[in-house]
Every structure is written in structure tokens, then in C-alpha cells.
């Protein structure tokens, strides 16, 4: 029986807002009492997590005085140290306060855009003080209900100006941050700008220092857009941009569900974990999810343990998949390569063109070739169901 105990090397993290979620939704009041950041840190240590992430206002109330802020931060740092919990990522709440009702960096109001920069700089100071090296940007309210209200072309420029400004702020203060942009297609706005991983990748390439900026893709967000999350992650990885990842679960076409990782799309999550482990992704495995509204805090602990346990089960299954001789034989068969066309991967040349033009392909034979994907997919299913 494999060991599914979470360990620091797995880099499992949760946000203060995840296990601390009180179960409020647009239709109902909270079902759980508020628990303090220190209690959350204790809970995370108890369940075996490695780290905790936070928005500025998860820890420090938006209207705290400077001395209140310092006292809260000192107490939190002590709790993290006492419980062996690290803070690898920080972010800014640019969505709860009514000042941000029409966005932050992309608001039509220059005063809101300026306030958003000021708030983010203060939050970057806080994150740096706590040791965070990844700084996430989720544009919760960077969107619109009506395209009469905002020019989407202006929005792109405003976002670029903000990112360029904040990159310089990080460098000027030697914070060493990697910025991780988190796309989401909608909710809470009708549309959110830069809705997908592909869209963010295109935007990042237009920044002054694109090397400093990457992605924080989230399972639920690509699924809400009806997209294949693994394919988005693979593209971010290929671009050297997978700086962070938000793991949770989500049915296609639903509201933002934020379910426990592994609770919904078993095969998709398996292939995701197999990919992350096979390529050697070394960042946090952050669970941006929350427990059902029906849970009390004992069950919230089960939720948190479940996220990590499911990840480790998928990891174990990925190892089995890679070691399964029948599966691997099929994969070898599928990828059979005589080497005859290696010359095409050396780049374009007149010789290559000449050779290719004079090649006669057995088109009918190629079309008649069986691809045993049914068999392979069923073996994958059997393996996941534990009957192999
Ligand atoms: C959401 C988002 C957020 C962000 C968080 C960190 O759908 O609400 O996923 O949870 O990840 O604000 O930036
Ligand atoms: Mn989300
Ligand atoms: Mn998220």
C-alpha cells in the first residue's frame, strides 16, 4: 500500500481564504463561523500542508492602522514559525471592496487604478516580509457586464501599464518575485478580461519584462470555459511560464464550484498530475478550493486532507502507469519511429525539401493503420479503478 502522507517536498499549499471559507454564497448566509488566520495555520499544520498563501486582507483588515497591521503580521509570522508553515505566495484583494466594483487596474477611473497600484505595492511589501516569492494577480473584477461601458482595447493597455509598473517596483525593492497571472473567463463579472491561459500568454509577451511574468492556471477556470486544462498547462509549461498552479475541481459549464481536488473529473486530474510529475514541475501545488457549505470545520479538515491525498493517489497511479508494461508497450507501439524522417526535425533546408518531395507515401496503408487508443484508454481506466 503506497504512502499517501503529505510531506513538505510535495509543496502542498492552501489559501487562508480556502480552508477559512465560511460557506457564504449568493443565496445564503455563512454556515461556518469565522476562524482566525492563526487558527487556520494551526489547522494546516495539523492536516500536513506545507504552506499557506494569502491576500493582504485575509490577514490585515483593509482599514487597519499601521500599528494594528504590524501586530497582526508579527503574530501570524510567529504562528507560521511555530507550526512549520511557509508562505510561498501572496496576492492582493482587488475585488471585495466596493471601490473595485468596476475593476482595479482596468477601471475607467484613474483614481481607482492608482489606488489599486498603491494597495498592491503595500501587499507586495507584506508578501515579501512573509517570505513569498510568487505574487499572483487574479483580476476578479477586471471585467464588464456591458461593452458599452469600457473599451476592451484600453483595458489591455491599462493592464500592461500596471504590470510594467509593479514589475519595476518588485525589482527596485529586490523582492525577487515571479508574477503569476491567473485567468478566469467570468464570475463575478459577466466577462473577465484575459479569460484563458492562452490569452494571458499572448499578453505576457507584450510586457517590458516578460521573463518575470508567468501563469497561475486554475482547473476550474479553464473548465468553466469548456477547455482542456491539461492542454493549457502544457502550453504554459512549454513557454516556461508555469509559475504556480491552482488545483481544484469543476464540472464544465457550471458556476464557479471550487470543489475538492479529485472530486469530479478523475481521468482529467490523473493526466494533469501525471504531466506535472513527469515534467518535474517544482512549484507549489496550491489547492484553491473550499469545502461544501454543508461541512463543519472537522469536515473542512477532511476536505483539505482529501485534496492532498487525491493528488498523491494520482501521483502513485502515474508511477504505475509509467511502469505498466502493457501500457508502455502500447505507447511504444503508438509512437513507433523508424527514424526515416529525422531529417525534418533539423530545420528547413533545400536538401530536406528535395528529399520530401521525392518521397512516396503509402497513404492508403497509413489510413488503414489501427491506433489502439480504445485499448489504451480502457487500460488507463482499469488502472485508475484499481483493477490492474
Ligand atoms: C476565484 C479565484 C481566486 C484567486 C485568488 C488568488 O475564482 O475566486 O480562483 O480564488 O485564485 O484570489 O488570487
Ligand atoms: Mn477560482
Ligand atoms: Mn484561483
Task: Please describe what this structure looks like.
This protein is of the alpha/beta class and 388 residues long. It has 2 domains: 8-323, TIM Barrel; 325-384. The chain is 47% helix and 9% strand. It contains 15 helices and 10 strands. The protein has helices at 16-19, 37-47, 56-59, 66-83, 110-130, 152-172, 197-204, 219-224, 229-238, 266-279, 297-323, 325-334, 350-357, 363-368, 373-385; strands at residues 12-15, 51-55, 89-91, 134-138, 143-144, 178-182, 191-192, 213-215, 246-247, 285-287. The strands form 2 sheets. Strands 8-6-4-3-2-1-10-9 form an 8-stranded parallel beta sheet. It has a two-stranded antiparallel ribbon with strand order 5-7. α5 (110-130) links the parallel β3 and β4. α5 runs parallel beside α6 and α10 packs across α11 (297-323). The longest helix is centred in the last third of the chain and has 27 residues, at 297-323. It is globular, with a radius of gyration of 23 Å. The protein starts with 11 loop residues before the first strand and ends with a helix.
Amino acid at each position: 500500500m503506497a504512502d499517501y502522507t503529505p510531506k513538505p517536498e510535495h509543496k502542498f499549499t492552501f489559501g487562508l481564504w480556502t480552508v477559512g471559507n465560511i460557506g457564504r454564497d449568493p443565496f445564503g448566509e455563512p454556515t461556518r463561523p469565522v476562524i482566525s488566520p492563526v487558527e487556520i495555520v494551526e489547522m494546516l499544520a495539523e492536516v500536513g500542508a506545507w504552506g499557506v498563501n494569502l491576500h493582504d486582507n485575509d490577514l490585515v483588515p483593509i482599514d487597519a492602522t499601521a500599528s494594528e497591521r504590524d501586530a497582526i503580521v508579527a503574530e501570524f509570522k510567529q504562528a507560521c514559525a511555530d507550526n512549520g508553515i511557509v508562505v510561498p505566495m501572496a496576492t492582493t484583494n482587488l475585488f471585495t471592496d466596493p471601490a473595485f466594483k468596476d475593476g482595479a487596474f482596468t477601471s475607467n477611473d484613474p483614481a481607482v487604478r492608482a489606488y489599486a497600484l498603491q494597495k498592491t505595492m503595500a501587499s507586495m511589501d507584506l508578501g515579501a516580509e512573509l517570505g513569498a516569492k510568487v505574487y499572483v494577480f487574479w483580476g476578479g473584477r477586471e471585467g464588464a457586464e456591458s461593452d458599452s461601458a469600457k473599451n476592451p482595447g484600453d483595458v489591455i493597455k491599462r493592464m500592461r501599464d500596471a504590470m510594467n509598473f509593479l514589475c519595476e517596483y518588485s525589482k527596485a525593492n529586490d523582492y525577487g518575485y515571479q508574477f503569476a497571472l491567473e485567468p478566469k473567463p467570468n464570475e463575478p463579472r459577466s466577462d473577465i478580461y484575459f479569460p484563458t491561459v492562452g490569452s494571458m500568454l499572448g499578453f505576457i509577451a507584450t510586457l517590458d519584462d516578460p521573463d518575470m511574468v508567468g501563469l497561475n492556471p486554475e482547473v476550474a477556470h479553464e473548465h468553466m470555459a469548456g477547455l482542456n486544462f491539461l492542454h493549457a498547462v502544457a502550453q504554459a509549461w512549454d513557454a516556461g511560464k508555469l509559475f504556480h498552479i491552482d488545483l481544484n475541481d469543476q464540472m464544465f459549464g457550471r458556476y464557479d464550484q471550487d470543489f475538492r481536488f479529485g472530486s469530479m473529473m478523475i481521468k482529467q486530474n490523473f493526466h494533469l498530475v501525471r504531466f506535472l510529475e513527469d515534467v518535474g514541475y517544482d512549484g507549489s501545488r496550491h489547492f484553491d478550493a473550499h469545502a461544501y457549505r454543508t461541512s463543519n470545520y472537522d469536515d473542512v479538515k477532511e476536505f483539505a486532507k482529501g485534496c492532498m491525498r487525491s493528488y498523491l493517489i494520482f501521483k502513485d497511479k502515474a508511477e504505475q502507469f509509467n511502469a505498466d508494461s502493457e501500457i508502455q508497450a502500447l505507447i511504444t507501439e503508438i509512437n513507433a519511429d523508424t527514424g526515416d524522417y529525422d531529417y525534418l526535425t533539423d530545420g528547413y533546408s533545400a536538401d530536406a525539401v528535395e528529399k520530401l518531395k521525392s518521397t512516396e507515401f503509402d497513404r492508403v496503408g497509413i489510413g488503414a493503420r489501427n491506433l489502439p487508443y480504445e485499448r489504451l484508454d480502457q487500460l488507463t481506466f482499469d488502472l485508475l479503478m484499481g483493477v490492474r
